[in-house]
Design goal:
single chain; 126 residues; mainly beta; seven-stranded mixed β-sheet
């Protein structure tokens, strides 16, 4: 049974930092590209960052470029999202997701992902 478990969310002031973690189990982690998505109330789920198998390539939503960093630790089957200089508009429920892909491929559409975590809330106060 595949499980993705996020952690690290919370309340942070604007300009601060958070590090989200997502521990995966029940799958061959090196065979999956990983992504972080977020969904704010009344809005659609959107991709924030993606990383290809073995961390070869990364993708970022324009509004988080230079502030967020996605990375993986294959030995721990874990994907991270380092969030720096956070803004109130980053407030959302953050999800990690796994997509079985070829090397070097990054999926950016939510429908392209096979497995999802339950989400961790990030709230940025102004």
């Amino acid at each position: 049974q595949v499980q993705l478990v996020e952690s690290g969310g919370g309340l942070v002031q604007a300009g601060g930092s958070l590090r989200l973690s997502c521990a995966a189990s029940g799958l061959t982690f090196s065979s999956y590209g990983m992504g972080w998505f977020r969904q704010a109330p009344g809005k659609e789920r959107e991709v924030v960052a993606g990383i290809s198998r073995l961390g070869i390539r990364t993708y970022y939503k324009d509004s988080v470029k230079g502030r967020f960093t996605i990375s993986t630790d294959n030995a721990k089957n874990t994907v991270y999202l380092q969030m720096n200089s956070v803004k109130p508009e980053d407030t959302a429920l953050y999800y990690c997701a796994a997509a079985r892909t070829q090397l070097g491929v990054i999926r950016v559409g939510a429908r392209e992902y096979d497995y999802w975590g339950q989400g961790t809330q990030v709230t940025v106060s102004s």
